[in-house]
Design brief:
With about 450 residues, the chain is α+β, with helices and mostly antiparallel strands. The protein contains 12 helices and 18 strands. A hairpin with a 2-residue loop joins strand 11 and strand 12. Helix 5 packs across helix 6. It is globular and about 55 Å long.
């Protein structure tokens, strides 16, 4: 097997004076070890502490064929990290009175399916509209117009009534981009350029365009039987949708983080709305805002989002109480970018190292692990789940199972959180694979049925 040489080509754009030398060394060792273990060709890392860039470094190669090292100016693809920019654009239009969060999307789109008639802008921003993902037979190698993409989206059955549940929806954000175009008369990417990128000095941020000559563009890779391969081709129009089709650098993201910290683009009330857990119809909340996932690490709030697309992974994690932001890009689709970001955060601030809790029922945890494996293999006893969860699992099972099976066997399965309320018991497990880790969020209702069962990225 050909061995990939991953050398720590380090390009430092800012001083390390503020960072203890032993911490800097630990970060370098951590990144290098993870790159070797996960077989990641290249990583770009940026850390902002107390409002100032602390680290901006490149590791490994942006292009394996030409042995081009990663540097701070290296351009990666955003994946779903791009959703926060789409959400910000929508909130700008909300502040201007051109869009209303609780207005039905039919006002902006015209005729919609009956199942869409109660979906609002708020539902799309928070993944609570009932839309799901691209159908399995969707042709990503075909060029579509916005109207054709919208027509395809309308043909996908909704999973639930608006506001009833939370289910991640790329199609919802694709639709938001189309709404931006219809409201402003501009392609949503042009709107981002004029209203976000230029004002913040994000000079290399732009919509993906593989035809243009773009300096410092990284290549995206995938592992096939342990060997790196160039990623498969996607049509030009499918690389311009608002669910996450941006070119970004670590330097761009530092300026984005500064804009968020200083409230340069939106009013505080708008940011508060984006970073507040969404409330469902039954009054419960889900830890997602508008284009941002929300959680806590040992009591410290985290506002974050990951991305994956066409051989690239991206992650931004903001720890507001700790005045810390970690930004990671990697050019391997199997990379665990969340583990890289969270690992760096824990080195800089040990309070941010998430630890398993004392497990009150190890036997139950073991059964949960076996249940997950049974679900992925299509052999689970569906009677254990509520009808709503049965429906969701049936819709996503094939795609989910195919993805998880590429990661190999489970290395560890640990209980990270457990809470009880009047509705039942909620659990959060960390699942470690050789190349990455995931979380399983599960809830049991008062009748002992599983009322929530969802895999989430780290």
């Amino acid at each position: 097997m050909r061995r990939i040489l991953i050398l720590p080509f380090l390009v430092t754009a800012f001083s390390f004076a503020a960072l203890a030398q032993d911490a800097a060394k630990k970060i370098d060792e951590f990144i290098a070890n993870e790159m070797a273990r996960q077989k990641i060709p290249g990583v770009s890392l940026a850390v902002v502490k107390d409002g100032k860039p602390l680290i901006v470094k490149g590791y490994g190669f942006a292009n394996l064929e030409h042995q081009v090292p990663v540097k701070p100016e290296t351009i990666f693809q955003s994946g779903s990290v791009g959703k926060q920019f789409t959400a910000t654009a929508i909130m700008m239009l909300v502040e201007e009175g051109k869009i209303s969060l609780d207005e039905k999307i039919s006002k902006y789109l015209g005729e919609v399916p009956e199942t869409w008639k109660d979906i609002t802008i708020r539902h799309l921003l928070s993944h609570t509209g009932g839309m799901t993902d691209y159908p399995q037979d969707f042709d990503f190698r075909r060029d579509y117009t916005e109207d054709e993409v919208l027509k395809k989206a309308k043909e996908v059955p909704v999973a639930f009534k608006p506001g009833e549940k939370w289910a991640y929806s790329n199609l919802g954000y694709v639709t938001l981009g189309i709404i931006i175009s219809k409201v402003t008369g501009k392609f949503y990417g042009d709107f981002l350029q004029e209203r976000i990128f230029k004002p913040l000095g994000m000079t290399t941020a732009r919509i993906i365009n593989e035809a243009d000559i773009i300096p410092n563009r990284a290549a995206g890779y995938r592992l096939v039987k342990g060997e790196p391969k160039n990623h498969e081709w996607v049509s030009p129009t499918m690389n311009t949708t608002a669910d996450g089709s941006l070119y970004l650098t670590a330097v761009d993201m530092i300026r984005w983080d500064e804009g968020l910290a200083n409230g340069k683009l939106l009013k505080k009330t708008s940011f508060d709305e984006m970073w507040t857990p969404i409330k469902l119809n039954d009054g419960k909340t889900h830890p997602y805002g508008f284009g941002w996932a929300l959680r806590k690490v040992n009591g410290h709030p985290v506002v974050e989002h990951g991305g994956a697309w066409q051989g690239f992974k991206a992650h931004i994690a903001r720890f507001p109480e700790n005045k810390l932001t970690v930004i990671v890009f990697a050019n391997l689709i199997q990379a665990n970018q969340g583990k890289l970001a969270n690992g760096v955060a824990a080195i800089i601030d040990p309070e941010l190292k998430q630890r398993p809790i004392a497990d009150p029922d190890p036997a139950f945890t073991a059964r949960t692990k076996e249940l997950l494996l049974a679900v992925l293999n299509g052999k689970a006893d569906m009677a254990k789940f509520t009808p709503e969860v049965q429906k969701l699992l049936a819709q996503q099972q094939d795609r989910l199972a195919a993805f998880v099976k590429t990661m190999g066997s489970i290395q560890s399965f640990n209980l990270m959180e457990r809470s009880e309320d009047t509705d039942g018991v909620r659990y959060r497990y960390q699942i470690e694979y050789t190349g990455m880790s995931l979380f399983l969020a599960m809830a049991l209702n008062k009748e002992g049925k599983i009322s929530s069962f969802a895999l989430q990225p780290e």
